[in-house]
Design goal:
InterPro entries: AB_hydrolase_1 (IPR000073), AB_hydrolase_fold (IPR029058), AB_hydrolase_sf (IPR050266). By secondary structure, this protein is an alpha/beta fold. Helices cover 44% and strands 15% of the residues. The protein has a single domain, classed as 3-Layer(aba) Sandwich (Rossmann fold). The N terminus is likely disordered.
Length: 357
């Protein structure tokens, strides 16, 4: 029988909040659409970098993770799920991930978004652990994984690092799920390293832009970045923008706890965003693995119309939209999100069996 965490544990785990990176693109598929996407990306990137605050280079060279209370709370959250913490060195980086679930189960790789960490998935894990083997990675330069000054952290390089880690660690095609920035990285993996990917889920993913723009997306051209917070009021606004359900009360409760973490990483996050906005042009239509596009309809970071843009670029993709949900489905509705994933993966398994018969 599946044992779900208590209400108290769920309330504690719900504090894993993560906004994420947005990349402006085009909803059109095909070579012409990709050319338009790249041109739009170049315009937004140039405008943002011309107007945005620049990171303090001296502080960036000396940056080290801080021993604040928030990482300790996240460790308590991990222990509540029974997930084990592991580490390995890939391309000079010490990478840290959580691993657990069913031994020998189908592997699932979960990739978090911008300003986030592996703990963002904790609420959802109990709904998947009985059937799947779960790998929940801190992306390089995020969470407990290492940042190395002077190296590149573009989405392109991050995808290659994650692919190499997956090749060594998982050793079999995995169901890859990416949230926001993690979705962009997951898409790159599926396009370039299909042998590592059993299926792809783009959850409120960065990488395309639909007919409408969110306030965050529009602000980039003015040099405004709502994901970079240095004052308590900015942390409150940032947290409110990521969720739909109970967003104000949760933001007010969590902001004082998370304030130190945001301020300690502010310079590094400015630097990482300026690198990650250099998005590589990828033939999304070349993605052949089964693909699910899952989106909260009330997303204030990446507009829900982006889901249709992904569908236009990846015609075989299945699109599911979640009513009353914002940018973080795995936090806002973890049970519903896990059920959507299980249904998608089960359908793919049934199709493989039918084809083999």
């Amino acid at each position: 029988m599946i044992r779900f965490p208590s209400a108290a544990v769920l309330a504690s785990l719900r504090s894993a909040i993560s906004p994420a990176l947005s990349v402006i693109g085009s909803s059109k598929a095909g070579p012409q659409g990709l050319d338009e996407q790249q041109a739009a990306l170049d315009r937004v990137r140039a405008a943002y970098l011309a107007k945005a605050e620049r990171p303090d280079e001296a502080a960036l060279r000396q940056w080290q993770p801080s021993g604040l209370a928030w990482p300790l709370l996240r460790e308590v959250q991990r222990l509540a799920t029974g997930m084990r913490k592991r580490s390995a060195v890939v391309e000079g980086h010490r990478l840290v991930w959580m691993e657990g679930g069913k031994a020998g189960g189908e592997p699932v790789l979960l990739l978090h978004g911008f300003t986030s960490s592996k703990e963002n998935w904790l609420l959802m894990l109990p709904f998947l652990m009985q059937r799947y083997r779960l790998y929940v990675l801190d992306l390089p330069a995020w969470g407990e994984s290492q940042y190395i000054h002077g190296l590149s952290y573009t989405l392109d390089r991050q995808a290659e690092r994650v692919a190499e880690w997956a090749r060594r660690t998982i050793g079999a095609p995995a169901h890859v799920v990416g949230s926001s920035m993690g979705g962009a990285i997951a898409g790159l993996m599926a396009a370039r390293h299909a042998s590592l990917v059993a299926s792809l889920t783009l959850m409120n993913a960065a990488g395309m832009h639909g007919e409408n723009s969110s306030p965050f997306e529009s602000g980039l051209s003015e040099g405004r970045n709502g994901l970079i917070a240095g004052r308590l009021s900015e942390v409150v606004q940032l947290l409110e923008s990521t969720m739909e359900r109970n967003r104000s009360s949760l933001a007010l409760a969590l902001a004082p706890l998370m304030y130190g973490q945001f301020t300690s990483r502010r310079t590094l996050n400015l630097h990482l965003f300026s690198q990650m906005i250099e998005t590589p042009q990828v033939e999304l239509s070349g993605i052949q693995v089964p693909t699910l596009v899952l989106w909260g309809e009330q997303d204030r970071i990446l507009d829900v119309s982006s889901a249709d843009a992904f569908k236009a670029a990846i015609p075989h993709a299945v699109v599911k939209k979640l009513s009353g949900v914002g940018h973080l489905p795995m936090i806002e509705v973890p049970g519903v999100t896990a059920r959507r994933l299980r249904h998608f993966w089960t359908a793919q398994a049934a199709q493989r069996l039918a084809e083999a018969a």
